[in-house]
Amino acid sequence: MVAIPFLIFDPGSRPNPHVLVVGVGVGAMLGIAGGLVFRSFVPLERRLQIIRSLNPRLARHLIPAPKNDKD
Question: What is the CA radius of gyration of the chain?
């Protein structure tokens, strides 16, 4: 986020395409690794709670409502 004002106000500070590709690749690999760790070590019910808390409207469309075992 610190680099964004420099990119806007100083056109000569833009990195070359090779650096951008490497940066995006490293970021993607870190994101995939983080997602795999999250999926492997967090139980399903807890993951669903986290997703519901992040975006309740989207969760209503994608994730079924929690089951109530009260009969």
Answer: 20
